[in-house]
Structure formats: C-alpha cells, structure tokens
Amino acid sequence: MTVVSATSSTTNKVLPHPLNAWYVAAWDHEVTRKPMSRRIANRPVALYRTEDGNAVALADACWHRLAPLSMGKTLEKDTIQCPYHGIIYNSAGRCVSMPAQETINPSATVPSFPIVERYRYVWIWMGDPTLADPDLIPDMSQMSSDEWAGDGLTIHAACNFQLVLDNLMDLTHEEFVHSSTIGQEELSESDFVTVREGNKVTVTRWMHNIDAPPFWLKNMRDKFPGFEGKVDRWQIINFEAPSTINIDVGVAKAGTGAPEGDRSQGVNGFVMNTITPETDRSSHYFWAFMRNYALDSQLITTQLRDGVHGVFGEDEEMLMAQQAAIDANPDYEFYNLNIDAGGLWVRRILESMLAAEGRLTPSA
Amino acid sequence: MAATNIETWQSATVIEVIPVAEAIARIVLEPSLPIKAEPGSHIDLMVQINGESVKRSYSVVEAAADGTRLVISVMKAPLSRGGSIFMHSLVPGTRLEITQPLQNFPLRVGAQRYILLAGGIGITAIANMAVVLKRLKADYTLVYVGRSREAMAYLGELEKLHGDRLEVHIDNEGSSLKVPELVGRADTGTELYMCGPIRLMDAVRRGWVERELDLPNLRYETFGNSGWYDPEEFIVRVPKLNLEVTVPQGRSMLEALEDAGAEMMFHCRKGECGLCEVRVIELAGTIDHRDVFYSERQQRLSTKMNCCVSRAVTSATGAKADAAHTGPAIITIEPN
Ligand code: FES
Ligand code: FES
Ligand SMILES: [Fe+2]
Asked: Distance (Å) from the C-alpha of residue A144 to the closest C-alpha of chain B?
C-alpha cells in the first residue's frame, strides 16, 4: 500500500495542485473586454479587461444565483454585469449595483483573484491572497526579451498536470515518441546530471559529436546555410515550482566549445512550458519556442511554432493514454527508474508545498 | 456564494475563558475539523438558553494559522435573552457545536490605503484584519472607539502590535471620535472597514455619501447591529392569521412569530436580504429599522419592515425612546 509522508513520498501517481502559487490563466492576448471563462485549479474563473486595460479574474459564478459572469458584459471603468438579473460587480468582486432594490446588500461579493501580467501571460493566484507575492512568479523572461523571438500555443491536455511535468523532466522519451523530428538514440545513451536547489530542479544532458536530428539540422541551416557535419547537442531542463519548465536546447558545430560556454557556432532555443491544472484530470499546457537567432524572421517563428506544435501533439496523445491507463489500473503503482530523478525531485517539491497547505493526500 | 459560506458544523472544545475587559470574555476554542480562518470571518455557534439550542454569530478575533485554535470574544449584554450569559458561564473542557469559519466580511488585499474602524465589541471583527494588513506591510490605520478604557478589550495588545497605526478614542476621557474628520481622511484609494454600534456606522456612511466616495469601498459587518433604540417588548398583530404575539426584549419579531406557529419566509436573518419583509398596516409607536436592505427613503415610509432584526418601540417622536411611555408599541402586519 502507498504510505505518504510529508518529506519522502514520491509514490503518488498523480498529485493535487498547490494553491498558494502562481499559474498562467491565459495568454495576454486572450483576455479582452469580452469576458471569457476558464477553469483553473478546479474553479471556473471569469477573465476580462477593464476600460484601463487591466486584467481581472473573478469567480465565474454570480453571488445571487451562480449564473456565469463570463456570459455577462463589461461596463464602465472596471465593472462587469451578471447576464441573469443584472447585478454589477467591480474588479474587486464587489457589487456596485443591484437593479431590483434601492440598496446594495453588503454581502454581495464574488471572489476576486490576484492577477499579474508578465512574460506575455496573465498569471493568477488561486490560494490565500494574502500570500500572493509577485516575486514568486517563475522566471520566463525569454518570453518578453529583445534577445529572443518566437511564439507558442496552448494544449488542452486530458491528464493531471504532474504527468506533463514528468514528461518534460525526462526527455529520453523523445527517442520513442518523437522519432521523426528530435528523437535519436544518443538521448537515452548519454549521461545526465540532476541538481535540486530550493524550489528549482535542473537536469543537464550533453550529447557530443552526433548527427543533428532533422529539426535541429534545419535550424542550423537557417543560421549557417548549407551546414553539414557533426554537432554537440544540449538539453538543460529548468524546473521552477509550481509548474514551469524552461528547456535550454540547441546544437553547435561539434568541438567548437559549446559545452565550455561558447555557443557562437550553434543555434539556441528555449522551450518555455508552464502547466496550469484545470481539474485533477486535465491541464492547460502553455508553451512557446523562443530562439536567439534570425530574430526578425516571422517565417521562422511560424515554422518553429508549427513544428513544435506537431511534436507536442505526439506528447499529448501519450499523456492522454497514460492517464487513461492510470485510471483503468487503480491497483498498480508506478516504478521509478534512474531516468526519473528530475521528475521525482519535482514531485518532492510539490509534495512539500502541498503538505504546507495541509493538502497532501494519497491519491490514485 | 463563496465556499466559505457553506455551514459545516463540527464540535469544538473550550480551552480557556478569561475576562479581557469589563463584561467581555475571551474564549479559546479547539475545533474538531480545523480550517484556516480568514480575516473578517465568524463562526456560528449553538448556545443553550433554557434548554433550547439557539444560533449566535461571533467574529473570529484571532486564529492559529492552521485553524486549530479559534479565539472569540463575547460581551455580556444586559438585554440579551441569555446567549451571552451562557457563553460567559463556559468552562474549559466544555464541548460546543460550532460551524467552520464563515465569511461575510472579507478583507480585500491590494487597496492603496485602509481605515479599520472598531466601536466597542466591534473590535472582534476588526482585530484579525489589522494583523494581516500589518503582515502585508499595507498602509492602514486602526481606529478603536470606546466608552471607557475598562470596556475596551485588547487595548494593550493592540497598542503593542500596531504602535502609531493605532488611534484610540475614548468617550470618558474626552477624546471622542469626530466622524467627519475621520471620513475626511479617506480618498478614492481608501477602503474603510467597520464594525460597531449602528449610530457610529450610520454617521460614517452619511459622511461617506456626502464626500461622494464609492460605496463599495465602505465595508461593514452587520450581524452585531444594534438599533437606534433600546429593544422593548412590543405586540404584533397578524389579522390574516388571527394572531397576537408579544415580542419580548430578547427575541426578534421573526422568532416570536415563528414561535406562535406562523410560517415565515427568511434567508439571512440579519437584515440584509429583505426576504422576511412584512407589510405594516397599523402602528402605535415607531419602527426601529435595523436592516440594511431598505434605503433611508424606504425606512422613512415605514410601510414595510424586515422582521428578523427590526422592532417596534413606543416613542413616536423619533427621539430617544422615552422611559415614560404609556404602554408597549403595537404593530399590525400582513406577512408576505
Ligand atoms: S444570478 Fe446574477 S444577478 Fe441573479
Ligand atoms: S431574513 Fe434577511 S432581512 Fe430578514
Ligand atoms: Fe515530448
């Protein structure tokens, strides 16, 4: 049987999500004056912008009869009107008008969630608002830096968020899941180093003097037209709690000093991933591919986005199938291998956050 | 609608009962199903009065971070029907039925400035907010108003904790609060949270409206509402139901009608929702409107009243209920 203790359990197959943490609610461009609804950490949230352009997140259920506010409309300043009987709320979730009576009921409020816009995303804090420190937002600075260009999309993944994190913390799956694009057998063969520091985990893998797989050969040729030959390839996976994984990836002409720090003879990308639990069995998986060469080529931005989109479709299929198998086999446990070290450190960190919230429970 | 308003009942053990001011006891409870208590939250609790269980609400004055200890404070009210007397007679080890913390008075994080105003026992609803604002390094002033130093619970602790941010006004020391001056300090970035006697809260509300500040930035807890007049016994007649009921000092008109077998409609039972509204057909006396559902215009008309909190008093002058009245007020109503 599964025994859970606050510090040493990594045997839960899937985990609940910490609430005292920042998650991405949406891309910045998704949130407009027209309210939208999105389920985040099991709670429906209405997202909209005020007249001043500030993003707002309110519980998507009117105080009166729980009609979804996201079906309502935004009015002057920072307000939104319930579509059912017309109660108007401000961005703090407070009722400012009750059409059917002369006074405002002092209890009329809907929860309003702390919001910060950063790195092209709208971040939300679903837990205790008195702990919502913007300094705790994971670093995704490549998303909004002049030195990086790129774009991304959202995958709606029908699995627990932890399975996505596992997937990204162990890239040996590339050889099997992504054999036509980025997979190659050297991935499973090469050594890797795992380091945990506070709420961060890094997994570093170098592959020396190998053939570039198709995806990377194309990128090399974008920067070095006609490139042929061997490369040194790297994958440096950076996890930051609760659920952001930025993977520093690239290849450089073999033997030109990339492992020692000179990447000038190569191409470098950052796969930016941040996973928001939607429910216990589904996730919003926000990703982008950023590069630090050919910055002004919209063609390359679009090609890379579409290429990675195809690759991630392969992950999505596997993750769905894995979640279904987990649910269909409740009596079977996971077995943890050496390659799972990164993912297991992530689980340790999340379990300690959950324990601090009093929410670490054994789950199937 | 917030999940924190779903009543989950649990048992709790009384850990400690100590006096903290004239007629005010501090009661520490250990709930069996602890959850975190947010600032502004309260618990409902069953008190025993003449062998009968009756529900009362008390603010959570302070709480352990994980909710394993909840502190409430109860003032022994001379006109109470017995709830506060029951609470004052508790001894450590007693088991009570209480709800998990409920929330009607949430503190919003992120305002530019805060004024917290507590009158008398109203400090119980405000103290926890002040602690959180201090931790958040927010810009806040805690204004604490009382009759006399002896009647003000937690004064010493608050002085220690909040230093210059605490502002104290004491009637019998000649430093009474000047409400216009206080409201004058609020601007569009200020949120004011208050709990205290209705006269104080009403004066603040008037000042707030006069200054044309946004009403949603004025927050108040209502369950402790006192009236404009001291409660009196009065008579309510319901011709439609062929009823004549005496409403004693310590019982609401809604309760008295229910006791007499009338099937009444209600929701909040604290003067907010307007569901317990009855139509007033005839009145010998004055209505003491204690609800926040009606506008002033509607209260002046007095053609209706919310019977869960509002009462009838003898004085028809609108001045302080005079002691030399000739008999109980009589109100004739038609229930909705
Ligand atoms: S449900 Fe929103 S106003 Fe009635
Ligand atoms: S029951 Fe809500 S005002 Fe009386
Ligand atoms: Fe993958």
From this structure: 26
